[in-house]
Design brief:
Blueprint (H helix, E strand, L loop, with lengths): L1 E7 L6 E6 L4 H16 L11 H13 L5 H19 L9 H13 L4 H20 L26 H10 L6 H10 L3 H5 L6 E2 L4 E3 L3 E6 L10 E6 L9 E3 L2 H21 L20 H14 L9 H12 L4 H8 L4 H7 L2 H23 L2
Antiparallel strand pairs: 1-2, 3-4, 4-7, 5-6
Helix pairs in contact: 2-3, 2-5, 3-4, 7-9, 7-11, 12-13
């Protein structure tokens, strides 16, 4: 056995000592020498009874909750409680090893959890262990020694120009027609579309400003049935998400007509109208639930005989058509509100291939003309 002093307890003032045990005197001496070296360089981590689960909950509450948006907090909490705690939660934090984490990832993959979800779980665990290192609770971040499933980027299913026309014709008299049309024409995310206010739209200039989003999140203030979630308006996650987008002229005309109908509706409702200033809302002014809006989009798509598509595919359709029209990826990145152009190019890598084929055909013609030239 070897023992060293690591200072005094700040509460009791008593001397704190840590012991090491080896099978031989030399092994004990080696452990002591390593601990003394670590202590001298400020890298020593005292033994601790904290479990992985306890630390994950502490990290999420004390280090992340104030920094991330409510929806992201809900997602992190769901992944921790649903996946990390049942498998890794009871392991002492100081005893967590790379093989524990690797086996966990492998088991989750075998249980058909998507590669993308596992990568998000890894990001959560990696962040928590990185903070644990800063707090000198662990010597290293063992998640860095693991291999995550690469997976394939999901193939987007944008609508063709003909399918867009087919859908818009089918819902021309639908209450949500202006909202869906604007989604196709600007590439707005669902939360951005439903949080749009008239003060954010300049129909004369033909532009709109993304300044807030609408999300349904867990209501941590109550456990009362029926009130466990709530709708909240929040600022966009990144500065790039706060952007200005031009509105196609024909869509601006549709919005002007929608605004006139909206004003009439507001007058009819009188005091029963709750004014949030929203462009798209229920007849009494309250926000549309994002999930309800999604369901109301899927129904007319099915009635129009279109293949299964998601509401988010209006955004993909916008981006794909813009690229096929020859718009620069940087322009599309700005209009979509992506943080980096790499995100745009990664998601829409199949579109530039079409443009590359067109470029190759033009180059082929140039070579042909060069060879046939006298």
């Amino acid at each position: 056995m070897a023992s060293i002093s690591i200072g005094h307890d700040p509460t009791t003032g008593k001397l704190k000592r840590v012991s090491f045990y080896g099978k031989t005197r030399k092994e004990g001496a080696d452990l002591l020498a390593q601990a003394l070296g670590d202590l001298h360089h400020g890298a020593f981590v005292a033994l601790h009874k904290l479990t992985v689960g306890q630390w994950l909950e502490t990290w999420l509450r004390d280090y992340k909750q104030a920094k991330i948006c409510p929806l992201t907090f809900d997602n992190y909490e769901r992944l921790i409680r649903g996946h990390l705690l049942p498998t890794l939660g009871t392991i002492p934090l100081k005893e967590l090893r790379p093989e524990h984490v690797q086996q966990f990832y492998n088991q989750q993959r075998q249980a058909s959890l998507s590669a993308g979800t596992i990568r998000v779980i890894h990001a959560v665990l990696h962040g928590a262990l990185r903070q644990a290192m800063r707090n000198q609770l662990v010597m290293r971040n063992v998640s860095e020694a693991t291999e995550r499933p690469s997976g394939k980027t999901r193939r987007m299913t944008p609508l063709t120009k003909m399918q867009v026309g087919q859908l818009l014709t089918a819902i021309a008299k639908h209450r949500l027609y202006p909202a869906i049309l604007l989604g196709f024409g600007t590439g707005l995310r669902r939360g951005e579309l439903l949080a749009l206010r008239w003060q954010d739209v300049d129909l004369e200039a033909g532009v709109l400003h993304v300044r807030q989003t609408l999300e349904r999140v867990r209501n941590h203030a109550t456990t009362e049935p029926g009130k466990r979630t709530c709708l909240i308006f929040q600022e966009p996650k990144t500065e790039q998400s706060r952007h200005t987008i031009p509105i196609p002229a024909d869509i601006a005309e549709v919005l002007k007509q929608h605004k006139a109908r909206h004003a009439e509706e507001k007058l009819r409702m009188g005091q029963a109208y709750t004014d949030y200033g929203l462009v798209f809302c229920w007849p009494h002014g309250t926000p549309l639930d994002p999930e309800d809006f999604r369901k109301r989009f899927v129904q007319p798509c099915q009635q129009a005989g279109l293949p299964p598509i998601r509401l988010h595919d209006t955004r993909h359709t916008f981006a794909t058509l813009m690229l096929k029209l020859g718009q620069a990826p940087k322009t599309v990145q700005t209009m979509l509100g992506h943080t980096t152009i790499a995100t745009t190019l990664d998601i829409y890598s199949h579109v530039p291939l079409d443009l590359e084929k067109q470029a190759a055909a033009k180059l082929n013609l140039l070579f042909r003309e060069a060879v046939s030239a006298p």
